[in-house]
Design goal:
- The complex is a heterodimer.
- By secondary structure, chain A is α/β, with parallel strands linked by helices.
- Helices cover 23% and strands 18% of the residues of chain A.
- Chain A contains 7 helices and 13 strands.
- In chain A, β10, α5 and β11 form a beta-alpha-beta unit.
- In chain A, α1 packs across α2.
- The longest helix of chain A is centred in the first third of the chain and has 12 residues.
- Chain A is globular and about 45 Å long.
- Chain B is an alpha/beta fold.
- In chain B, the strands form 2 sheets. In chain B, strands 1, 2, 3, 4, 8, 9, 10 and 11 form an 8-stranded mixed sheet that branches.
- In chain B, α7 links the parallel β10 and β11.
- In chain B, α2 runs parallel beside α3, α3 packs across α4 and α10 packs across α11.
- The chains are: A alpha/beta, B alpha/beta.
- At the A-B interface, α3, β9 and α4 of A face β3, α4 and α5 of B.
Chain lengths: 265, 293
């Protein structure tokens, strides 16, 4: 179950969705992959609040979908009701993705590093893994193609946020610095929204930098829960902004009335 | 020429050791009836290509049919990990060739278009490229200086897809058209077997040719298998069957229990109709047919 945020009239999952939603804008052209409840809720909330022109292709297929509820799989047709177009994979989706029409994608990994690279392939050595994970799916592709990458995690701890990935399934800022630019990749990770805090990325090194803390969480808590050195800017770290009553009402009653997002917690 | 055949006959086209590509995406549109028949016929040493797959790959592994999985992702999504895939690949009993979705699509396209490679920006900067020095090459275009990955051909012996309708000549309809990567595996394969919900008169195709997905020369065998994607979905006709995924995952927590489950619920029933009956029958089908067009 999800935990209440001290002092805010919401739970952590709701704070994460609202924070994600506010990072979206009217020029967002987004799509989603598997097990992506927080981003899906975020796109739907943004479209109902400050970003009515936002484009979202449900499951990367159903453009402008407006489902009454969110099903147990974010790649399933239960998410597609109300779509204005069902696009097909090779000739619609991959054209819009590699062709730089779609500009926003969110992914996460079983492991993530300071540069926002992700691993969803193996824990341990590739050839003798301790745990075989499902695989990177489209991460290796979309990490290279999409300019605005968003990361999220509902399990902010030192096992997820590691100094060194066991396998780089998806490219964030790579080795940092100008690595993406050298490979001709657009943009890169913008934010990483976790159950403890929000990171952005330090502009030169491209390392995760503490942008805001959720209420009740200290800088030391984040340090203790992160397996790499985080960038902490000078001065006081702001609190992650509180959701408005209207955002919470829309999220709870219109976007996700059956709490599908709790599947991530 | 009548391409309609039985599922047993069609499966006999798949030799041991073949490279078999499985259609569908994750919990959608997988050719489960045909996959079950491969398990029943105890195929061995297959190289299984499943771009973004789950249950069909797990069945083939549980059936001892698989030498190597070529894939970008194998899971049951929010319903859990694919248990046999995870266990057997972890143990090294089944090999894995880890790609990504678009790298595999590009390899299939190189094969389909009869070109030495297909370029993509997919995979740049990741650890995937180093796994495949023979099939993926990171190159720089001499004119523009752009980085790309050259994805070499991926030859496929047999493609298995499930669709809505076919006629006896092998014309096939997916409605709506080509939602997934099935077209890529059909185009790359030397031979394609299509299971379909219904075999219909050719007149239905000639009356609406704009709705044909695969022409008859691309399809080698047609098998009628209603609900042939169960327990995955076939949009818009029926959704996936969550209860099956749950029961399957629960059984897989214990090797003995899984063996019994797999025998009773998957391999044992003599026909596909029997399989559907064992797995909930009419009630289950009514339950998933929430979106009947």
């Amino acid at each position: 179950m999800t935990t209440p945020v001290p002092g805010y009239d919401c739970t952590v999952d709701e704070l994460m969705v609202v924070t994600f939603s506010r990072a979206m804008s009217n020029d967002t052209l987004a799509f989603n992959g598997a097990v992506s409840f927080i981003p899906v809720c975020g796109y739907l909330l943004a479209r109902r609040t400050h970003a009515p022109e936002l484009v979202w292709a449900a499951s990367s297929i159903a453009i402008d979908a407006d489902p009454a509820t969110i099903p147990e799989s974010t790649l399933s047709d239960g998410l597609w009701d109300g779509a204005s177009m069902l696009s097909n994979s090779p000739f619609d989706f991959w054209t819009y993705a590699q062709g730089a029409r779609y500009n926003t994608f969110a992914f996460r990994g079983a492991q993530m590093d300071a540069f926002g690279n992700v691993n969803n392939t193996v824990i341990g050595p590739y050839n003798a893994p301790k745990v075989r994970l499902p695989g990177g799916g489209g991460m290796a592709d979309l990490g290279a193609m999409i300019p605005r990458i968003f990361l999220w995690s509902s399990t902010h701890n030192a096992r997820t946020f590691v100094e060194r990935l066991d396998f780089r399934s998806g490219m964030g800022w790579g080795d940092g610095g100008d690595h993406r630019e050298r490979l001709g990749m657009p943009g890169g990770p913008q934010l990483c929204i976790t159950n403890l805090c929000v990171f952005d990325f330090e502009p030169t090194t491209k390392r995760m930098r503490l942008a805001s803390l959720h209420p009740g969480v200290s800088v030391e808590d984040v340090r203790a829960s992160t397996g790499f050195e985080i960038v902490v800017p000078a001065g006081e770290i702001p609190l992650t902004a509180a959701p408005t009553a209207e955002e919470l009402r829309i999220l709870r009653t219109e976007v996700d009335p059956t709490n599908a997002r709790h599947r991530e917690f | 020429m009548d391409k309609v055949t039985t599922i047993e006959e069609a499966a006999a086209h798949v030799p041991d050791g073949a490279t078999v590509a499985i259609g569908g995406l994750s919990m959608n549109s997988a050719p489960m009836a045909m996959v079950r028949e491969l398990v029943r016929q105890a195929k061995r040493d297959l190289t299984v290509v499943g771009i973004v797959a789950g249950m069909p790959v797990d069945w083939l592994i549980a059936g001892g049919c698989v030498k190597t999985v070529v894939s970008g992702l194998v899971s049951f999504e929010g319903l859990g990990l694919a248990p046999n895939f995870r266990a057997m690949v972890q143990a090294g009993t089944v090999g894995i060739e880890e790609y990504s979705e678009h790298l595999l699509i590009c390899r299939l396209q190189a094969q389909a278009y009869n070109l030495p490679f297909m370029p993509t920006k997919a995979g740049l900067g990741t650890d995937v490229l180093a796994l495949h020095p023979d099939t993926l090459r990171q190159e720089v275009d001499p004119t523009t200086g752009e980085h790309y990955v050259a994805c070499t051909r991926l030859p496929v012996d047999v493609a298995l897809v499930h669709a809505h309708a076919a006629d006896m000549r092998g014309n096939v309809r997916v409605e709506p058209k080509l939602l997934w990567m099935d077209s890529e595996i059909v185009n790359a394969a030397a031979l394609t077997i299509a299971t379909v919900e219904r075999v219909v008169p050719s007149r239905e195709f000639t009356d609406a040719p704009e709705r044909t997905t695969y022409p008859r020369f691309m399809i080698d065998a047609v098998v009628e298998a209603p609900y042939g994607a169960f327990p995955t979905s076939l949009f818009p006709a029926y959704g996936h069957r969550s209860a099956f995924f749950d029961d399957y995952s629960a059984a897989a927590r214990d090797a003995k229990a899984f063996q019994a489950f797999f025998a009773e619920r998957v391999v044992g029933p003599p026909t596909w109709r029997d399989f559907l009956d064992v797995n909930g029958g009419a009630g289950a089908l009514l339950d998933i047919a929430r979106r009947t067009a």
